[in-house]
Amino acid sequence: MNHPQIAIFARSAKEDTPYLRSIEGQKSLLGRTMHDIAFDAIHDELVVTSPLAQAILSFRGAANGEEAPLRAIQGDKTQIKGVGATGKVSIDPIHNEIFLASPDQAILVFDRMANGNVAPKRILSGPDTQLSLGEQREGGGNVPCIRIDPIHNLLLVPVGGYGGGKVLIFDRTASGNTPPKAVIQGPVRMGNQFEIYAPKLRLITHTRNNIEIWKIPESGVSTEAPLKIPAPLGRQSGDIGIVLDPLHKEVIIATAAGNNIMTFSVPEVFDDWPAGGPLTSAAPVR
Q1: To the nearest whole percent, how much of the chain has pLDDT over 70?
Q2: Are strands 202-207 and 194-197 parallel, antiparallel or unpaired?
Q3: Which residues pair with 92 in a beta bridge?
Q4: Contact residues for 193 (Cβ-Cβ < 8 A; gap 6+)
Q5: Is 68 exposed, middle or buried (0-12, 13-18, 19+ CB in 10 A)?
């Protein structure tokens, strides 16, 4: 059984480097089946779901050891259920909101400072949304990752089975049975997670040994193919998470079979693209 823990490493850590600190223990309420984590750089907080506690937990960015969360959204009013708590979480620190994707085919939105047994401030759900957020079953469901663009006020949700065949794009404040305002028509194979670089309206994912960069439309249906940059992870090693480091122009990918974290230098994610400019492989820097 995995030890429930959030480990924090130095950005420049390499092979066999011990972590700097960790959040763990009974008081943390962490469970071993955490499926997503979000970092709020503005308020220096970590947000994670806890399936066993059926909760959304917020920790100090500097939390260490057996430390209790700052806040826990938990209870029947939240509409977070056992399996639903394994859903993917995203945070919008600019508008102070937390988003949770649930296999109940709903996206629940909470105030960032919500604590205790509180109802969502709004819910996006219904047939017109075209949401397909995995099946609710014992042991968890295949709930897709969701991400927020706080600059252009967009909510991005992949649908269409594992990896997502397309990406639905909603207004950030959409609620009820609201259809998407735009669609990226793929197939968009997400790997396990994706990120967005809001200043350039770009969606970044890793799949089949490539980092893929998709343009995000603000309306209509986009069928434009992504920019692909080779970034192999090694034999039989699929991705289980991806994060962007705009300051250093790096893409950080956690792998499954490889059980490691690889950092690639990919300025194409963050810079303007030269017309017809050649692309090179994204060699790992760590």
Answers
A1: 83
A2: antiparallel
A3: 97
A4: 36, 88, 145, 205, 239, 240, 241, 242
A5: middle
Residues 122-139 have pLDDT tens digits of 999 999 999 987 654 444
In this structure, what token pair is assigned to residue 273? Answer: 């693209």
Between 54 and 263, the higher pLDDT residue? 263
pTM of the model: 0.87
* CA–CA distance, 148 with 213 (Å, rounded to integer): 16
- Say which CATH topology domain 1-147 has: Methylamine Dehydrogenase; Chain H (2.130.10)
Token representation of residue 148: 């927020």
Angle (CA) 120-123-127 rounded to 5° is 160
Tell me: pLDDT of 220 over 90. Answer: yes
The backbone torsions φ and ψ at residue 225, rounded to the nearest 5 degrees and listed phi first, read -70, 155
Lowest mean pLDDT among 107-121, 189-203, 214-228: 189-203
Task: Identify which has the larger pLDDT, 32 or 195.
Answer: 195
| Tokens of residue 33, six digits | 């089946």
- Extract the tokens encoding 12: 């420049």
What residue segments make up the domains of the chain, in order of their start?
1-147
Q: Label each residue of 81-137 as H, E or C.
A: CCCHHHCCEEEECCCCEEEEEECCCEEEEEECCCCECCCCCEEEECHHHCCCCCCCC
Task: Dihedral sign for Cα 208, 245, 44, 92, please.
Answer: negative
| Rounded CA separation 128/130 (Å) | 5
Rg (CA), the chain: 18
